[in-house]
């Protein structure tokens, strides 16, 4: 399988030779028109720090950036036609010592640390939302930081997952995040994307309610059965709930298309010239010590493909991220991933609704926050004095870019295809 780093570079370098995309709107994604909508409200359930674990999420890791602090988001969704509410992801249970041993060990060993927090059931109750009103819980995937503590939900609650999700439990499966209490008394439903004839943005899709208000999308790679959600908040605008398709928005941005539709604000753009390390990141018009964002056509980070990577299939996950790029660059879509640390303090949280995100300009406010040196998600310069890239492939690519002229983009694309032994057009082929 192609490494995620090579796949990302092949995919993104090819964009340098392609015509600059223009904003087309939701109809360009094969989404049927509908007036049925949902209301989405976000929760920030917890923040946890993964100590010396950045490398299992993204590449390159710059010196001093070995620890990664991430939020955990969960979403309350109301289907407006029926007034029924459901959850998309639950975040983490507040007593991780009671997880199966393979995962409790992350916390007892202090590999993952966190401050005490209220879990999603506490937050819902405090907000006046009865757990009895939540008839269905969608898990993007069955990792402990998404499944919550289902034992607190009423018997009969429906759990919906992708059909390829492994729902075996501990101790039968010693490596499972799941235990009997997660499934006891619940209805388990597996969505079979292979039987669906609908594709949206190149991703297999299922229309959950049959009215175009809420779609589930097959986004494999992070974990078998991983799925994301596309929530229609107005007839022409959507929120893409990305789960763990990626963990840092620098794995999704920048792209040439996003810079065309949602340009980086001028003051932040100016600061990136010196804030972003040119020893580790490059673009056609950059010079040593002066980074040029507008000529950067590919995301800063690749998905980790090292031993112990949190992506079960980094190559497949990279293709899912590449398909996300088109959504992310379109003004009709707001992308929110479960662990985006950049949006803290800007993303409206429950009880506020996200349904007016487009008229509120939320996409423009959030898209480039990760480039701000003061932002929690900033990972683009070293903390220590040793300003060197940690990836030999990055180093090799940087030398290539610096040696090639701006009109030799095609040669660079062919070089990356030879380097990775893959044809990028094959990778982008829609299902």
From TrEMBL:
The chain positions of domain Metallo-beta-lactamase read 71-280
Cross-referenced Pfam families, in alphabetical order?
Answer: Lactamase_B (PF00753)
Q: Which InterPro entries match?
A: MBL_superfamily_lactonases, Metallo-B-lactamas, RibonucZ/Hydroxyglut_hydro
SMART domains reported in the protein's UniProt record: Lactamase_B
Keywords for this entry?
Hydrolase, Metal-binding, Signal, Zinc
One GO MF term, please? hydrolase activity
Positions of transmembrane segments:
none
Signal peptide from the UniProt entry: 1-24
Family as reported in the entry's similarity comment: Belongs to the metallo-beta-lactamase superfamily.
Q: What is this protein called?
A: Metallo-beta-lactamase superfamily protein
